[in-house]
Amino acid sequence: MNDSTNDPLLDYRALRAEDPDVYGLIAREAERQKNGLELIASENYASPAVMQAMASVLTNKYSEGYPGKRYYGGNEVIDDVESLAVARARKLFGAEHVNVQPLSGSPANLAVYMALLQPGDKVLGFSLDQGGHLSHGHPLNFSGKLYTIIPYFVNKESELIDMDEVEAIAVREKPKMILAGFSAYSRSLDWRRFRAIADKVGAFLFADIAHIAGLVAGKQLENPVPICDVVSTTTHKTLRGPRGAIIMCKEKFASAIDRAVFPGVQGGPHDHITAAKAVAFGEALRPEFRTYAAQVIRNAAALAAALGERGYRVVSGGTENHLMLVDVFGSKQITGKEAEKALEQAGISINKNMIPFDTRKPLDPSGIRLGTAAIATRGCRETDMAAVAGFIDEALMERLDAARLAAIREKVAAFAGSFPVPGIG
Ligand code: DSN
User: Fold this and answer.
1) What is the pLDDT of residues 77-104, one digit of tens each?
2) What is the mean pLDDT of the chain?
3) Closest residue to atom 4 of ligand 1, CA basis
4) Measured CA angle at 271 (ends 269, 274), to 5 deg
5) What does the pLDDT look like over 188-222, one tens digit per residue?
6) The ligand 1 atom nearest the CA atom of 134
7) DSSP character for 137?
8) Integer Cα distance of 97 and 95 in angstroms
9) 237 catalytically annotated
10) Distance from the CA of 42 to the center of ligand 1, in angstroms?
């Protein structure tokens, strides 16, 4: 980690002098990020510019309200920061209206539910155990507690979302909102078919593109923003910004969405994060970001193919985005929990994950989820994926041998060392 003022990377000298404990922890995490391979599908590396905006004096300000309509004085600069973030997000996604204040994905989704629905209303959402998200209707989440959730599923054979079944369920149940989105599905969604189904039953169409927003912004996947009524996304996954979220919508939903975010769900926005979102949107508007997004997808396809060659079954037979689910139990009789632990010991971060129609439990499922957004940021290309698949396979095969896992960790660190991490080097 850098602590010199003359370096373009972050300057940590004040923190190191004042609070060596916290500095030490951050330095340790920087080493972990540098020496390991980050394959968690929802993670990425923000640029030094994004991190510098986050670490700015904008954290000192309160600004409940919206530009020009604040409950506190002294917001003339904050108004410009927020307006800039909104303008860039609108341009990036072609959105009629954008709210850049949501603190993260679940609060953003809560605001969308509050804007469009009454408690008890019916919502069609992708089942969490097949690739959905907690905020799409899990019984322990606000969504499952406050609304009547009707799940839809993938087809058992193809492991693809069965749009005919989605239509049949929608016609039968007449939901007020259809939620299209996922946190563990490796295929493209048919936004137009979702639109047609929503129109047929008179439902709102809400897309949660948290995982794929960067691939949409990078023009590699179809943009659902013109097709859907409301679209939410986190800003820190493939979009590579600060930890946070935004909501995009058609103009006719703008005031309902804005009121739901503030005062409905949140108080003061985090203005330093808003500035960092503006920086990330600026980065995503550049042509280089398209190259990045294309590389993420090429890497995922190459990694899925390389794992397939080593005898691992990739759910649905492959990937069209940045992520994949691997059926480690079905392929090698290794549970997701065992795989996560072994890979962690080998310096490779992934997460255990349910696969569709899993016969095992969420805390020790049959699968693992892998994603290539972070390693593509470090400069890994598709030709590097055979090596990554090799490390994964070797660690899983040697999962009971701590010494072998430690040796693999050394090899992983040597490999990772040739791909610099933004802000760390
Ligand atoms: N935790 C995120 C993920 O890993 O997909 C979703 O919120």
Assistant:
1) 999 999 999 999 999 999 999 999 999 9
2) 96
3) 42
4) 95
5) 999 999 999 999 999 999 999 999 999 999 999 99
6) 7
7) T
8) 5
9) yes
10) 6
- Decide if 243 is catalytic: yes
SS3 call for 368: strand
- Please work out whether the CB of residue 137 comes within 6 Å of at least one atom of ligand 1: no
Q: Under 8 Å CB-to-CB from 196, ≥6 apart: which residues?
A: none
Out of 1.10.10.10, 3.30.499.10, 3.40.640.10, 2.40.10.120, select the CATH number for domain 57-284: 3.40.640.10
Q: If you search the block for the tokens 């398209």, which residue do you land on?
A: 290
pLDDT digits (tens, 9 = 90+) for 336-372: 999 999 999 999 999 999 999 999 999 999 999 999 9
Pair of tokens at residue 208: 């949660």
Report yes or no: 96 and 148 within 8 Å, Cβ to Cβ: no
Ligand 1 in contact with 42 (CB < 6 A)? yes
Task: Give the separation between CA 278 and CA 249, rounded to whole angstroms.
Answer: 18
384 catalytic per annotation: no
> At what angle are helices 76-93 and 271-284 packed, to 10 degrees?
30
Q: Any idea where the domains of the chain sit in the sequence? A: 57-284, 295-416
Q: Tell whether ligand 1 has an atom less than 6 A from the beta carbon of residue 105.
A: yes
Amino acid at 318: G
Domain 295-416: which topology?
Aspartate Aminotransferase, domain 1 (3.90.1150)
Query: What's the CA-to-centroid distance between 13 and ligand 1, angstroms?
Result: 33
Pairwise CA distance, residues 310 & 321, whole Å:
21
Q: How far is the CA of 183 from the centre of ligand 1 (A)?
A: 6
- Nearest CA, atom 2, ligand 1: 42
Q: Scanning the structure block, which residue is given the tokens 């969490």?
A: 128
- Check residue 57 and give its pLDDT: 96
The tokens 């602590």 sit on which residue? 3
pTM of the model: 0.96
Q: Whose CA is nearest to atom 5 of ligand 1?
A: 183
> 224 CB under 6 A from ligand 1?
no
Closest CA to 214 of 118, 116, 130, 286: 286
The pair of structure tokens assigned to 55 is: 């670490």
Distances (CA, A) of 32 to 15, 38, 90: 19, 10, 36
Regarding the beta carbon of 183 and ligand 1, being less than 6 Å apart is answered yes
* Cα–Cα–Cα angle for 271, 272, 277, rounded to 5 degrees: 90
State which ligand 1 atom lies nearest to the alpha carbon of 211.
Answer: 5
